[in-house]
Amino acid sequence: MAIFSVYVVNKAGGLIYQLDSYAPRAEAEKTFSYPLDLLLKLHDERVLVAFGQRDGIRVGHAVLAINGMDVNGRYTADGKEVLEYLGNPANYPVSIRFGRPRLTSNEKLMLASMFHS
């Protein structure tokens, strides 16, 4: 049995300490032509796959990189919006890397509060 996360919660239900042993899961990278056959939606300031899983790309995976440039939330490293960039046919063919998004601090607090009774 493996331990993936450790959460220390005080009596009042507040998160005191949290440790994740995050091992990046399999990421999928694929080159697409226009039009994109996946439906991407903005959810919690991330661009996620909402419909059309294939080739290791699953519903719920986030866009991690476009053409080798990292994606931070809904913007690329050079400040362009991901959905606008992918909506422009002049930017294709495009290589997109998908993977499981990491938990945000707020999501970790919500998860830890579930252990408090």
From TrEMBL:
GO terms for cellular component: endoplasmic reticulum; Golgi apparatus; TRAPP complex. SMART domains: Sybindin (SM01399). It comes from the Eukaryota. Its main location: endoplasmic reticulum. One of its GO terms (biological process) is endoplasmic reticulum to Golgi vesicle-mediated transport. It is found in: Endoplasmic reticulum; Golgi apparatus, cis-Golgi network. Transmembrane segments: none annotated. It holds the Pfam family Sybindin. Keywords: Endoplasmic reticulum, ER-Golgi transport, Golgi apparatus, Transport. Belongs to the TRAPP small subunits family. Part of the multisubunit transport protein particle (TRAPP) complex. This is Trafficking protein particle complex subunit. It comes from Pan troglodytes.
